[in-house]
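Reviewers of the previous submission asked for a worked example of the structure-prediction workflow described in the proposal, so we include one complete record here. The input consisted solely of the amino acid sequence. No template or homolog information was supplied to the procedure at any stage.
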Amino acid sequence: MDDSCRRREVLATAGAAVAVGVATGVGSATASATTGKRAASAVASNAQTDGDTWTQFGADAGNTGYTAADGPRSAVTSWTYDTGDTNTGETATGDEANVFSSPAVADGTVYVGSTDGTVYALDAASGDSVWAFETGDAVASSPAVVDGTVYVGSNDDTLYAIDAETGEETWGFEAAGNVFSSPTVHDGRVYVGSSGGQLYAVDADSGEERWATPYGDSVLSTPAVADGLVFAGAFNDDRTGAVAAFDADSGDRQWRFPTEGEVPCPPTVGDGLVYFGDFAGVVYALDAATGEGVWAVPLEAQVSAITASPAVVDGSVYVGSRDGNLWSFDAASGDTGWAYATDDEVISSPAVTDDTVYVGSRDRRLHAIDRGTGLNLFTVDTGGDVVSSPAVVDDAVFVGSNDSLVYGVAGDGEDGTVTGEDPATGSENGTMPDGTGSGANGTTSGDGPGFGAVGALAGLGVGAWRALRSADGDT
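From that input alone, the workflow returned the following structure tokens.
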């Protein structure tokens, strides 16, 4: 899970639910798409990784979540590393340190942050410590590793550049507010947001500011970068949100798409479209060049706020929801494919290979899911909520947990067998919730209410969210 999603979780009352009022007019499907004026083309992954590295949140500058790695279809935990029992700042929960940060992997080393205020470099094969870099506050930001430098934000209001080999600081950039946002590195620049409502472009070599653009009341979203544009979500004090595109060279805003729900989590870019979800439980696809709506899917669920970044690959979109499901959609049309049920909220962002989807859940497990069927391959138990987003390199998966541990999960040489039930939860997978889907993949059909009506429907959901937070004292 990206740090921005985690931070928004902290700001919200723990365990609060959203009752999204989208049942009327959405059609017979549990989640059905509404198309805009422009027909979307089939989506291909943006800047896919070659499988032996996972250099930043979402695997690449477009946050696609795709890797050419094989990834395990059956696995065992090969090592764990304990980041300790000391928390700093206000983002952590409980006595143990939380590993909200999503790992980056390069040259046989895993880089990850912890709420104990430290960035760790670990040997990918053994889990042994290589070095540890202490910041002044909790590190929820996910590192990016490019050209021998680790870039990561901290709640001490600083974006750091660290030598990947030695762990020594190269430079520090002072931001206006906490840097919960994970940095995105592209063409010699580091793009990152801050809780002070600023989106930055920083020179990757020198740490000098190239531009800073005010945007909303907080920019917790990890930027996506593609085709000369920077895309980021924001949320405002009135609990509305937006996604906007900025010129990568100047920071000038090109377009802005407002939403009824906050958008603190990272957008994903693939084949000219921008995908994201909001706190009102709506998944969107926009034209990346113009910001025009292509499709929108309001999820018909009682707890459907979307606090995870979508993954996009080979014409499919995968995104988790607080309703406990990992959803799949057709990237061009928004038609719903399957939904995989976990036993708690899915606020981890998925990692995708050619045949497998990996995602964490607050049910304290890492789940591996067959892409074609939506059925379970294996689960890995941890001692805490898994809100960290997994990184997949070769035949291994790396992920953090709120039990203070980083997990290295390796293939066990077996091919893996899909099952109709999650062996840990007993829940049926590969079909739509409430039995509304048809077939093994949970395929749905039905017409939606029209793109313009989605905002009104979503507004019912965010209204309920506000009421719940107000009742719990979080106003």
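The helical segments are 3-11, 451-471. We consider this example representative of the routine output the project will generate in years two and three.
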